[in-house]
Amino acid sequence: MDNEYKILSTIKSPKDIKSLSHSELESLCAEIREKLIEVVSVNGGHLASNLGIVELTVMMHKCFNCPKDSIVWDVGHQSYVHKMLTGRFDRIDTIRTKDGLAGFPKRSESKYDAFNAGHSSTSISAAYGIATAKNLKGESSYTIAVIGDGSLTGGLAYEGLNNAGRYKKNFIVILNDNKMSISNNVGAMAKTLSHMRIKPTYLRVKRRTEKLLSHIPLIGNFFKKVLRHSKSKLKNLIYKNTLFDFLGYTYLGPVDGHDLDELENALNAAKKCSGPVLLHVVTKKGKGYEPAESRPREFHGIGKFDIDTGEPLSSHKGFSAVFGKRLCELAQKDRKICAITAAMTLGTGLSEFSRKYRNRFFDVGIAEEHAVTFACGLASKGMIPFFAVYSTFLQRSFDQLIHDAAIQKLHIVLCVDRAGIVGSDGETHQGTFDASMLNTIPDTTIYSPCYFDELRHSLNAAAYMCDSLVAVRYPRGGELYKPDDFERSSIDFDVYGDENADICLVTYGRLFSYACKAKEELSKQGIEIKIVKLCRIKPIDCKAVEIASRSKRIFFFEESLVAGGIAESFSYELKKTGRNYYYKIHGIKDHFVRHESVEEALGELKLDDSGMVEIIKENI
User: Fold this and answer.
1) Which of 33, 62, 396, 418 is flagged as catalytic?
2) Is residue 206 among the annotated active site residues?
């Protein structure tokens, strides 16, 4: 097994790296890249970011002693290399599959994973907490936060930088600067880092100045100490201070992130510094695989692909693309329509909009909280902002949704992509919380279409039939099964089947497709049901409740958290009718959904057609 990976297959722990020669380390890096491409081409996943961090990961494990020294990965999508080097190479082929390795760091998976991650900008805060805890316990070791320049567009990163800047122990922040996150980086920090890359003389000037002062008899060391602790203009002139220096860090770099010798020297230098250090490492996203180097955005997160061509093995129109096209159509007719993304232009389907309507397109970086409040500012002056965001990342904006949007009754449109189960990215990325979260906010309207035409109509309604906070949520991928005899009659709800049937199945979103298949299977067994299909899930149409209440048994299936969800709201409305009925809610209970395919997850949760059939038959 894996005989072609002569060095990589022998790495059982980071200790095995320390004795390797320079040429062996270079061969190890080449083998890692080959294995990365092989695995991700089959399983899908994050390729470009992992290809770019190969040398840095190898040299960190050579220079530090993990797990005594703690490495905290920001986002964590670039930890595949780390997993290969920490005793998990023999399982790397299972990454992102059911019962296999997670696609992100996971403390329960390995002692080498210091902190779970899946969202951006958390590493510095978490690492500072870990470092502080170790200090309180009397432990002496290094704590390293590895953060990308894209993650530095998130506000939490600055909160961590600011707070940890006063720490006096072995604390190192490694800035992996590949000039982009998922989309190209935006904002002042991107410009600052670009300027620092253009003028990499900073560290040399520092060293030469200190060396010169050291040779001045009697007063040289005195002046050196004065300059180090001075806030004068003279210090700024000589030391070329950066933002990081002002925050209390010793800034080292920029360093070539693909030069093993340079990396080793820089990492060892960082270890010798007193106080917090920021090591600026410049890498190339997609390094070593031409398709990923030339198209890093497409290979950030990718499905199965052909290794020789780099082309995806499956391509179909999804909800994101339909959303993007429809928003362009709306924007063409209405100059008040604006689009906002948090570094997800490609992923949310806004690429065409960004080209056609540049002055109305805003990429705010990985800053979802800012995106919502920024949208509210636009809305307060009569614009109609559409914020396209993955369900899992919208969670970060809960406070802003309440205080800045809902309380002020400002009309912003949330386009909630990847709603429901997303599959292999696992717990940190499942879109299973947005329905419950948004359902708790007063004066909020939520649409959850099942098909492309419903998405288009929902976007129209969100733009022109609502006057406060409104969300349109839709799943990852494309539309599913649609019965030939089903026709949409309302943007609020539809009834499929005999309205007077004794058994009623209520659902929304893509689960309607599974419900239709369940209806067909039950019909073959002599059991007739009707389906109340909700498209507007908040507020719930009272007529939909009245029709459902005519049945003796009502089953609600929800691809979302049950607690605080739509099924509970529907139940409350049902009780108002005063009728007698049996009511059962089936959704996601009080747990997180692990990484596996969407089909496998829905099957385990009994939210697919066979699960619906089983539950209905058990309860009639």
Assistant:
1) 396
2) no
